[in-house]
Amino acid sequence: MKKVQKLILISLIVGLSSEISIGLMNSDFRISAAVIFFQAFIIYYEDLRIIPTGLLSGFTVYIFRLISYYLINGSISDVVFSYQLEIVFYIFYAIIFSILTKNRNKKSLNYLFLIMIISDFSGNLLEVIIRNMTTDTLSPSKIGFTLLIVSVVRSSIVWLILNGIKYYGMLIVKEEHENRYKKLLWLTSQLRTEMYWIEKNMDNIEEIMSKSYKLYEKIKNNVDKETWEEGALNIARDVHEIKKENHLIFRGLKSITENELEDKGMNIKDIISILSETMKREIKELGKDIRLQLSIEHNFYTSKHYYLMSILRNLVMNSIDAIPKSKKGGKITIEQWLKED
Q: Is residue 64's pLDDT more than 80?
């Protein structure tokens, strides 16, 4: 349902932006900003189905142009067919783009820049050819170079926008990582403080055990009765001190886990990446032949990443433990996908 809503919203934005346009050679053929939005959306949203988006975008552009023409001229009878050719452009653009980007990495913007130029130019050229055969007298040979320039300019704008978004996102991620690293250093220093008190308590416990054993020997052998009371009192006092220190340690650890672990969140892909590296090292140290296969379909954002990491780590560790060292070609798979209602 969300994908359908996104498709409709994008098509409406493309249709609305088509009102920013210029005509060529006194014809119904127009160059608009809508293609810039259309290109940017189908590249930025990787889960967007390109051909349905092209079809719906072409239809919304057609409707918006009819409404605009009617508001200005009071009639649409003379442009009903001519404006329909806008739909041809978007469908043809979507088909070419889909073919040229099939099984390709959509993250290579330099490659996509060339695909955008080819798709834009081819779509416009086909529309001009059809118009030349039907309603307008546009000559493809005369207007061809202009269409190429327009394709390059519009594709360049999209390339700049997407690169800007990409590098801005990298700066944000870098800043988040730096903040998380600072918080990790602070957290580590606090944990080291608590570890010091735990080690101190361990020494105290050993000392109390020694005192208790000595008192036990005295009672067993019925010697030094006058020291029994003082010895028991000293043991009780030491246990009470350990209890107080343990309570302080508990409060410190509770404060760390409740306050310091509060974070803005992480994307699931970052969580899985960290988990993968950690578990691969664990598998290597155990000397097991196990391959991790991780598949993430929907890169969602969560503020509960510590808890999610803990759950996933336990699941993977249990799986690693369940695979014997003698087994060759072991495999652990983690898959995530979005199930829509």
A: yes
- At 103, the amino acid letter reads N
Take residue 76 and report the two structure tokens written for it: 């649409």
> Which H or E run includes 225?
none
Q: What is the DSSP letter of 48?
A: S
φ/ψ (deg, to 5) at 301: -110, 135
Under a CB-based contact definition with an 8 Å cutoff, are residues 280 and 292 in contact? yes
DSSP state at residue 26: T
With contact defined as beta carbons under 8 Å apart, do 179 and 230 qualify? no
The sign one gets for the Cα dihedral 135, 98, 62, 19 is negative
The reported pLDDT for the residue numbered 257 is: 63
Query: What is the spatial distance between Cα 339 and Cα 2, in angstroms, rounded to a whole number?
Result: 11
**Residue 42: closest CA among 63, 61, 57, 20:** 57
Angstrom distance (rounded) from CA 24 to CA 19 = 15
Q: Which long-range contacts (CB under 8 A, 24 or more apart) does 58-63 make?
A: 58/86, 58/87, 58/88, 58/89, 58/90, 58/91, 59/11, 59/87, 60/11, 60/12, 60/14, 60/15, 60/18, 61/14, 61/15, 61/18, 61/32, 61/34, 61/86, 61/87, 61/90, 62/86, 62/87, 63/15
Output helix, strand, coil percentages for the chain, rounded to the nearest 5. 75, 5, 20
pLDDT top residue among 170 and 279: 279
- Residue type (1 letter), 249: I
With 0.70 as the threshold, say if the pTM is over it: no
Residue 263 predicted with pLDDT over 60: no
CB 138 within 8 A of CB 132: yes
**Nearest Cα to Cα of residue 128 among 107, 111, 151:** 151
Cβ contacts of 146 within 8 Å, gap of 6 or more: 24
